[in-house]
Specification:
It is built from nine helices and 15 strands. It is an alpha/beta fold and 292 residues long. Strands 3-2-1-4-8-7 form a six-stranded mixed β-sheet, covered by helices on one side. Helix 4 runs antiparallel to helix 7 and helix 5 crosses helix 7. It is globular. The model has no long low-confidence stretch (mean pLDDT 93).
Length: 292
Amino acid sequence: MTSRYIAIDWGSTNLRAWLYQGDRCLESRQSEAGVTRLNGKSPQAVLAEVTENWREGATPVVMAGMVGSNVGWKIAPYLPVPARFSAIGEQLTSVGDNIWIIPGLCVSRDDNHNVMRGEETQLLGARTLSPSSVYVMPGTHCKWVQTNAQQIHDFRTVLTGELHHLLLRHSLVGAGLPEQEMSPEAFAAGLTRGLASPAVLPQLFEVRASHILGTLPREQVSEFLSGLLIGAEVATMGEQFAGQQKITLVAGSSLTTRYQQAFRALGREVSTLEGDVAFQAGIRSIAHAVAN
């Protein structure tokens, strides 16, 4: 397959674009014109700027992420889960001349209401690169996804990253702290606590009390809190989702290391996959079908 196509990850705050010839990336570009930062420009204008000199004729453009949300270019309807992997590439939303948005996924049951955008494209790539029954996708909002070779069965979202930010920046837990520093020891201590006592709500104020009383260095609160929250997440969700199934972590290197440490503490080895690699493999698989 020698067709040219453009793959785009268009989130809330950033946009990344890759020009491909078959499986070969010819060039990549980045922009801070996420869908919430268009500064009065239309999505069409931003796309034209980012892909300048890339589109020969009607070169296909395939986009994933918040560009398909209610704050994006156009709503690309969610596919309800369970959904076949193949259905993701069959339900694209057109926004122009050979320009397509990939749908998100949703769950809507009495016991679980959830949505995702962007991660479904990572899942497509991850299924090929690291076949697993469970994918854990850390980030601001961590996704835990149950799959088999053909379909996505279920998923849940944990606001671990966002909660860490909010507690540290906008709550009493982090009020008045000096600049934070890296501390593997503080992270490990928080992790041990979170894994042992995953009902974490009563422990959050203790983080503040610990640094006021001098038992936790004030420069290490961020690291301890990170460990506490990740430990609580992995203990809670691991029991619900993982069992003895194969797990793959899909993330950047720093978060991968932290989650690996949490799983190892529970006696679990997990496979790892770089998030960008998974995303590009997933969006390429859809673009191949569009371009041919």
